[in-house]
Amino acid sequence: PVKLTPREQQILSLVAQGKTDDEIATLLGLGKWTIVGHLQSAKYKLGSSNRTSAVATAITHGIISLKRAV
Question: pTM for this one?
């Protein structure tokens, strides 16, 4: 099974809600490149080449849901 960190899960959930990297960075009080790094890590762990595929894979495997809050 794929193991994402809580932060990776949180960021993917926000991506699933349509948030941009800049919006996520502002919401979480982090730098944009920190967000990009977490997304890269999550995509690698999920075997995904892009953020849409990563979100779809995470939802399919029950790692995130569309109802998850910040």
Answer: 0.90
